[in-house]
Design goal:
heterodimer; A: 477 residues; alpha+beta; TATA-Binding Protein; 3 domains; 13-stranded mixed sheet; 45% helix; extended; B: 235 residues; mainly alpha; Muramoyl-pentapeptide Carboxypeptidase, domain 1; Arc Repressor Mutant, subunit A; 2 domains; three-stranded antiparallel sheet; 3 strands
């Protein structure tokens, strides 16, 4: 090879190298700047959430102090509703702050409890003018806790600004980011790569909690730990309304596995399976739980106590729709009758290949809304493909229903321009698994359709629902 | 050349002009044609097809890309829609099919007929969460994931809206890694609707995890309720 050609190749190679190097450098700078912009944007969001949280808790604490001393109805109601507003937004802000994992948060629980309590007190004070001694005591207890929470948060905020605290206690380094090191991630459905033992061990967390936090999340965890030291609040309110501890409607007695299979067979037979051979596939551990069974595409659950089917779902392929909604309701009634339920259908939702139907119990013509069964009717042949009686068995019991108000008296409580379409007596659920015995009025006003509930005992307006017509059925808001 | 046109020529010119004017008008009208003016079928293109695809997507029927081309996936989506609504299953969007689609994608109204919006944005978000977290799970398992979100709203230990729960940092791994932005399939949309109507196969769970992939002690320490598909649901 000639010297000249060699040189030329070398020149070309180095030129290519420098161009490539220059390009990747430019790309690197571009990416770096972009990353910084994104980081700043995200960091600003987090800062905003933290600042808002501190402001909300501070406002909440101040309003609580004022509400305690307010003696007139109008100011007391105003401060109570302010507490409700700031506690509700505080919960939201709290959930926007980054964390390394989410678990049960006592700060959130406290804020939610105060929101529920002040909401119901707002209503109560507006109606009666004051809180009773017990409620005052609970309110004061909540206030003491929120003073401590507020102090800690103010402290954390100061520390954040003074020391530029990190958001979570350890951010992954470059090797971990590249997937070489062990990345720590834990999340609600479980960290898929294992959590940090230090965080998982409550004892270690408690010890760490006594030191100065090195991150915002660490500080919030310390706050959580300090709140855990308090005895539980005597007010339960809306707490855990997704979960019923003592079901009222389960029959007596306890069943075993073979009995569960017999019950499942019988149920499957009634919903259209001839010779079904259901198998127990697992257990469920909850007050309504017991045995999980399966047969082909059907899945069902039978309670250990009382041995009743609480949940059933047939996940079969659905064929061409041949029914309409009224026919589906008819089929729903037929299925209920076969299963031994005497209920009344209250709503439907048309979901194309199937229709969801809600039916509730009736007691001497009184609709018992909490005792609810949800049915799913297939629109190809009208078969019952879904049955959910969890609510029914959780709440069904004999109720002492004694009304003090006459229909005419209840009607008097309604707005003057409200035109009644129909009325009946009904039991509805209220905050904290409580119930109210009411007159239900369906009617129209201002071009809208409403359901208005007037307490049949004390005559107060308990609830107003707005009815909206959606393409799939009536929506009760 | 003089611009003195003969009568005959003038007539010709007029004819040409009016024809082109008519054509122009006709084309404009077709360009702005609304969905339902004509029957759409495989091979159709244009704004009407795009409108059709958007409407199908709005109620949870996957059409692939919304591109204004009536291709195979649009035909299949129309067929599934027709099957589920009890219409003739031919994959052709004729008058009846389009009318039914328009009816189901309409806004909600008050009793006096005033429009008050679609009222479905939370369904879309929940469906995405279910799809990202639980695609491949049995249908009940997908409803169960949705039910967990709904249970968190009711629980005092979590935020109070669907968006606040789903976007809570580190609450769902599929949100953190961006899988939440995938378009959900029809099963996930159905599961979301069912969970939002109050169906809960979990018995009040607020957490779930895959036991084969999780060593996290916190999640294992939660009281377990039951296993559905690959997930264990806990309180």
């Amino acid at each position: 090879m000639k010297e000249n050609t060699k040189k030329r190749i070398l020149a070309w190679l180095s030129l290519t190298f420098f161009v490539a190097f220059g390009l990747s450098l430019a790309w690197g700078i571009y990416e770096y700047r972009l990353l910084n912009e994104q980081k700043t944007a995200l960091d600003n969001q987090y800062k905003r959430a933290l600042n808002d949280l501190v402001t909300d808790i501070n406002e909440m604490e101040t309003s609580m102090a004022k509400a305690k001393v307010a003696n007139g109805t109008s100011l007391k109601v105003l401060y109570l509703s302010e507490i409700w507003k700031s506690s509700d937004t505080a919960v939201n802000r709290f959930s926007q702050i980054p964390s390394d994992e989410i678990g049960i948060s006592y700060v959130e629980t406290l804020a939610n409890q105060i929101a529920d309590f002040s909401k119901s007190m707002t209503q109560k004070v507006a109606a009666t003018g004051s809180m009773n001694a017990n409620e005052t005591k609970i309110f004061d207890d909540m206030h003491q806790r929120i003073i401590e929470t507020n102090r800690s948060l103010q402290n954390l905020s100061n520390q954040y600004y003074a020391e530029n605290l990190a958001w979570i206690y350890k951010s992954p380094n470059i090797w971990e980011k590249l997937g070489i090191g062990k990345l720590i991630q834990a999340s609600a459905q479980g960290g898929e790569k294992g959590g940090d033992p230090k965080q998982d061990d409550p004892e270690a967390a408690r010890k760490a909690g006594e030191q100065t936090p090195s991150s915002v999340r660490g500080g919030l965890k310390q706050l959580d730990t300090s709140l855990q030291k308090y005895p539980p609040l005597s007010y339960k309110g809306d707490l855990d309304k997704h979960y019923v501890e003592k079901p009222l409607g389960l029959p007596a007695g306890v069943i075993d596995e073979s009995k569960a299979i017999t019950i499942a067979k019988d149920f499957l037979h009634k919903v259209g399976f001839r010779d079904a051979e259901p198998q127990v596939t697992g257990r469920s551990d909850s007050p309504l739980g017991g045995f999980n069974l399966a047969f082909k595409e059907a899945y069902l659950e039978i309670s250990k106590k009382g041995g009743v089917v609480t949940y059933y779902r047939n996940q079969r392929e659905l064929n061409e729709r041949r029914l309409d909604v009224p026919k589906a309701i008819e089929k729903g009634y037929e299925a209920l009758k076969k299963l031994g339920f005497d209920l009344v259908v209250t709503s439907t939702e048309d979901l194309d290949s199937y229709v969801m139907v809600e039916a509730v119990a009736q007691d001497n013509g009184v609709r018992i809304y909490p005792d609810k069964v949800r049915l799913t009717v297939a629109m190809d042949n009208g078969e019952l493909i879904g049955f959910d009686a969890n609510a029914y068995y959780a709440y069904h019991h004999d109720r002492q229903l004694n009304k003090k108000l006459s229909l005419a008296e209840a009607k008097n409580k309604l707005a003057k321009n409200f035109k009644i379409i129909e009325n009946r007596l009904a039991v509805i659920s209220r905050i904290g698994n409580q119930e109210a015995f009411c007159y239900e009025f369906r009617g129209t006003a201002f071009g809208e359709e409403y359901l208005i509930y007037i307490d049949a005992v004390d005559g107060s307006e308990v609830k107003i629902s707005r009815i909206v017509n959606t393409p799939r059925g009536k929506l009760i808001q | 050349m003089k611009f003195n046109l003969k009568n005959k020529d003038r007539n010709k010119l007029l004819a040409v002009l009016s024809i082109s004017l008519f054509l122009c008008l006709a084309l404009t009208v077709t360009g702005q044609a609304a969905l339902g003016d004509r029957t759409l079928s495989s091979g159709s293109k244009g704004a009407e097809v795009k409108e059709l695809q958007k409407k199908l997507l709005q109620i949870g029927y996957q059409v692939g890309k919304v591109d204004g081309v009536y291709g195979k996936s649009t035909t299949e989506a129309v067929k599934r829609f027709q099957k589920n609504r009890g219409l003739k299953v031919d994959g052709i969007a004729g008058k009846k099919t389009i009318a039914e689609l328009k009816k189901l994608t309409g806004e909600s109204t008050t009793s006096s007929g005033k429009k008050v919006g679609y009222k479905n944005s939370d369904v879309q978000l929940l469906a995405r969460c279910i799809y990202a977290e639980g695609r491949g799970e049995p249908y009940i398992g997908q409803v169960a994931i949705g039910a967990c979100v709904m249970n968190r709203i009711k629980s005092s230990e979590f935020p109070n809206s669907i968006a606040a729960i789903i976007y809570q940092p580190k609450a769902f791994s599929a949100v953190d890694d961006g899988q939440i932005n995938m378009s959900p399939d029809e099963t996930a949309v159905k599961a979301a609707k069912e969970a939002m109507s109050g169906s809960d196969p979990t018995g009040g769970a607020v957490f779930y995890f895959n036991p084969d992939k999780t060593k996290n002690k916190f999640i294992w320490s939660r009281p377990q309720i039951k296993k559905i598909g690959k997930h264990i649901f806990t309180r």
